[in-house]
Amino acid sequence: MAKSSKKIQVEVKETAQNKEGFVELALYVNQEKIGMIQQEEGKPVTVITNAGTESKAKSIDEGINNLLMDYNLHQL
Fold first, then answer.
1. pLDDT tier at 2, thresholds 50, 70, 90
2. What pTM was estimated for this model as a whole?
């Protein structure tokens, strides 16, 4: 039997740490925070999972994709 599709809600929210030259975003799946994305102007994007693992990404979109892949691999 095939599994039925689940609806998953993904949200990207700016945090209070945002300021000029620094971007910090929190990524949520179904109201559960799965990680953070930070970028200081002129530097690569830093991706931080809830487990505390840090990695680098070329863009914010790539960072979001990496967090979602990590979540799908370890949580679902």
1. low
2. 0.82
